[in-house]
Hints:
- The complex is a heterodimer.
- By secondary structure, chain A is mainly β.
- Helix content of chain A is about 10%, strand content about 35%.
- Chain A has a five-stranded antiparallel sheet, with no helix packed on it. A five-stranded mixed sheet of chain A has the order 13-20-19-18-17, with no helix packed on it. A five-stranded antiparallel sheet of chain A has the order 27-25-26-28-29, with no helix packed on it.
- In chain A, helix 3 (about 50-65) packs across helix 5 and helix 8 packs antiparallel against helix 9 (about 645-650).
- Chain A starts with a strand and ends with a strand.
- By secondary structure, chain B is mainly alpha-helical.
- Chain B contains ten helices and no strands.
- Chain B is globular and about 55 Å long.
- The chains are: A mainly beta, B mainly alpha.
Amino acid sequence: xxxxxxxxxxxxxxxxxxxxxxxxxxxxxxxxxxxxxxxxxxxxxxxxxxxxxxxxxxxxxxxxxxxxxxxxxxxxxxxxxxxxxxxxxxxxxxxxxxxxxxxxxxxxxxxxxxxxxxxxxxxxxxxxxxxxxxxxxxxxxxxxxxxxxxxxxxxxxxxxxxxxxxxxxxxxxxxxxxxxxxxxxxxxxxxxxxxxxxxxxxxxxxxxxxxxxxxxxxxxxxxxxxxxxxxxxxxxxxxxxxxxxxxxxxxxxxxxxxxxxxxxxxxxxxxxxxxxxxxxxxxxxxxxxxxxxxxxxxxxxxxxxxxxxxxxxxxxxxxxxxxxxxxxxxxxxxxxxxxxxxxxxxxxxxxxxxxxxxxxxxxxxxxxxxxxxxxxxxxxxxxxxxxxxxxxxxxxxxxxxxxxxxxxxxxxxxxxxxxxxxxxxxxxxxxxxxxxxxxxxxxxxxxxxxxxxxxxxxxxxxxxxxxxxxxxxxxxxxxxxxxxxxxxxxxxxxxxxxxxxxxxxxxxxxxxxxxxxxxxxxxxxxxxxxxxxxxxxxxxxxxxxxxxxxxxxxxxxxxxxxxxxxxxxxxxxxxxxxxxxxxxxxxxxxxxxxxxxxxxxxxxxxxxxxxxxxxxxxxxxxxxxxxxxxxxxxxxxxxxxxxxxxxxxxxxxxxxxxxxxxxxxxxxxxxxxxxxxxxxxxxxxxxxxxxxxxxxxxxxxxxxxxxxxxxxxxxxxxxxxxxxxxxxxxxxxxxxxxxxxxxxxxxxxxxxxxxxxxxxxxxxxxxxxxxxxxxxxxxxxxxxxxxxxxxxxxxxxxxxxxxxxxxxxxxxxxxxxxxxxxxxxxxxx
Amino acid sequence: xxxxxxxxxxxxxxxxxxxxxxxxxxxxxxxxxxxxxxxxxxxxxxxxxxxxxxxxxxxxxxxxxxxxxxxxxxxxxxxxxxxxxxxxxxxxxxxxxxxxxxxxxxxxxxxxxxxxxxxxxxxxxxxxxxxxxxxxxxxxxxxxxxxxxxxxxxxxxxxxxxxxxxxxxxxxxxxxxxxxxxxxxxxxxxxxxxxxxxxxxxx
Lengths: 829, 203
């Protein structure tokens, strides 16, 4: 007696892969179809599957204890050799035991387990599982499932376990409640129901969400904003002010048009360097700092590459220094280092203030094409003679990295932080022989210049180059290596250097993979891409936190397209036209800059906002100084922990903290909106404190207004006032969790992030209005970004007045629940 | 058929310490693994023994499993390939095509259905006579409908190498069946020429 495994569907005898493989031999293809159609029909004993399961579960109860405690309990090979009568007896016994156990249970259905209950730090990417004590009516449970905040989900069943997958991931930093009425949890016969309503409460952690768990229906498109002309081989770096630095930008204004900044050479202190001028302390003829509106660039004017500061809004550029082959900002953003070609083989390493002033030449013997990275606030690493070298701001240099040498032409890149270096495969003998210094930096076209610093070294390495055939990371302090299997092109590092991504071209289909730097034992994680055999992935960049990756994908010989994909869930969050080069993420990961080259050899730097990025429940108002945001975050964080010491340290001495201390613990908080009063310089933040739901009470919240100000210009922000309402039960319906505004040229863009999935049909100009200073409604364009639960309001030609944004109860979530109360706020146009 | 990757990764992590989670993996993958093993062994008792061994090996080794971007099934198939090889090594010599086809020839079909199954067995016996790696690639491709790239993941080979194995395997089968000999009877026919594929859907 045997059961049969269900056969495959009938329409599968044609296989495109086999058809392609045997395209030249129709007979073989027909034979393959016949073989597939006549494949053995598996027969399996009726009780074999449950019997084996019972044995496995029995063994698993011992095997799956913590390692080392129960090794002696592992089944011996002899246990696996069962068959015949002995197995038959055991099998019958197992079935009987299972049957008795089932029948002896209580007639009520119980919730056995869930993966999220009472966990207030659930990963927003997690699914929710709900396991029942017995088989239940799937349709009834799914139909009556309630999730609050309203969330679009897909459901599936694995045995008696319901798996709930949020289509657009869970919202970060949000309390959730999952409810299933007890009478909806009924047995398949309908005779039994759950003992009580199933009520699961949990919350998500506040890490920015990497994106939805499934592909959005419509992938947002990158809309690049031109920043200015550059040379095609430029590198780009985001500055601390959000502007973009181009190492080889093209400005048309004369560098000598404005006063020269003070420049100082410390290189003369280095005994190994020529004693020829300039000497330390003498001004050097570095290019001046000058401003050039990009719109005034004349095609006929001489276009000389310079180290350019390109305004984030595309309004113009400022020359910071001469054309450079690499540039990097110090960890605080206060200092800038860059490399300037001096001879055909060597470059000067300069350090300046972030605005390019007070430039100081530190060394004169950096290799042409050397990458740069700050290893601390006062030291920079670079290549000299193929040796990784560190120099401090006094010009004192020392070799680091032990015996590591980088050969001419060998790819090399520093991870941010300067503690780890990527060294590409050793160039071929022919390649090394021909790798005479070219006299120009030669960053790889696929390189990501920032946040990592990368290049192909053309220095005069005299020591023997590494002979490895694959690219690898090297920890400079220890010399430990970490091969990057199959790497082609250059890797990309996250802003903290903790993650590295690269293209593994070891197979016919290129793989985009990532791993943690320093993890020599783990296996790289593949980031799913649409690439197929023959496609090319290149031009990588990782966001600062490593949660998003940008790459270009050239399919079937067509032009490369730009993709921004979440690392955790491989979801494409933005698409754009390619090809591009030198991509780099902003520190917050919400913008990306890249170079777009034209067929005529010209190129321009573009910046684009990534749709939905930065819209999570974190303070992000661009108008608010970052140091104020930092103080605010720390103060609110201390408030959660009831850390009065930290609160005092961040508050004005005269401020009483009593009003800001809650009687009961708070689970989470978020800044809904923060604004800067330009006249007073004070920052006002609307903060919400939240207590997650429990089995006995629902979600409650209290609103708080925190004011921050400086004692005097240049002094740090302090909390000067706190006003906290009492806690109240959160009403049903979508909550606004974050409001930001930013100006994109003449258009003011407002973003309202919600905790719930909204009904897109309700997101209209009827539900959302913006009024000018005199109360007149302004024409607006309203869109809803489903994957980030964000309403985007665009006001073209917005006046620079105080505007009033209002959201009415006409806006509702996917469950039909309206906004609980009308919302209104004032924004500066 | 395929578990969502995020969910599967979480399930595997839980299965390292949670018997129920391992049971869920078993529930999901038993059919696939058994079908694959059976298609290689075509003997119920042997298939059940080897399938048992596969899952017990998985249970003992799951604490060492690390997702490498491939589905968990790839790991199970790898275990299966090794277990099948062990089975062949310990239980019997390599399959003998002539013997297999001879058995088929000697067992006169009682009716058309039996004749088709017998013929199918004879054709698949030709696969059994192939070198081991060709046999595995052919079984996964023709028996399991797997993508070439996925087979490569299981076998630790590139997609191109798998293509080569399948191509050579098909040529080997054709040679063994004598299809390319002038006047040789066609041992197979396309599903279209036979109506319902033998052993599938016509029952």
